[in-house]
Amino acid sequence: MDARVKLGITAALVAFVIGTSVALADRPLVVSSRGEQASDTLRLGYFPNINHAQAVIGVGNGDYQKALGSVRLERQLFTAGPAAVEALFAGRIDCSYVGPNPAINGYLKSAGSIKVVSGVSSGGAVFVVRNDAGIDSPADLAGKRLASPQLGNTQDVALRTYLLDHGYDVKKSGGDPEIQPAKPADILTAMIKGDIDGAWVPEPWGARIVREAGAHIFLDERELWEGGRFATSLIICRSDYIEANPQAVKGLVGAHVDKTVWINSHKEEAVQAFNQEIARLLGSPFDERDLKIALTRMDFTYDPLQESVAKVAHDAYRLGFLEKEEPDLSGMFDLEILQDVLAERGLGLQQ
Question: Is the pTM of this model over 0.90?
Answer without folding.
Answer: no
